[in-house]
Amino acid sequence: MSVDAELPGPFTRFRLSRSPVDVLVFRWSVLFVCVVVAFFSTWVRLAQEAADGAITAYVFVLPLLAAVAAQGVARRRADELPIHDRQTDNIVGGLALLVSIAIKALWLPRYADQYELAHLDVLAALAFVFGGAILIFGLRPVGRFWSVWLLLLALSPLGYRLVAVALDGGRFAYALVMVLVAGVAGAIAVGRTRRRGWLGFGCTVASGSVVAALMLTLWPGIDIVWLQLVPTVGAAVVMGLVFYGIARRGRFEARRPRSIGLPTAKWSPSSKIVAIAAAVVLALIPLPSRPDMASVAGPPGAASVPLVPPAGFSEIDVQEFDWVRAFFGTRSTLTRQTMRADEGNSAWDLRARPRTVVVDVLSTTNRASLAVYPESTLYRLSNTRTSHPLTIDLGRGVTGSLYTAVSDALLLTWTKLVFHWERGDVIQRVTIISVDNHDEDAVFPQPMPSMASNLGTAVGTFLRGNAISIDDDPEYKDRDLLTTFGTGLVRQQWTPANGAPQ
Question: How remote is the C-alpha of 274 from its chain's centroid?
Answer without folding.
Answer: 29
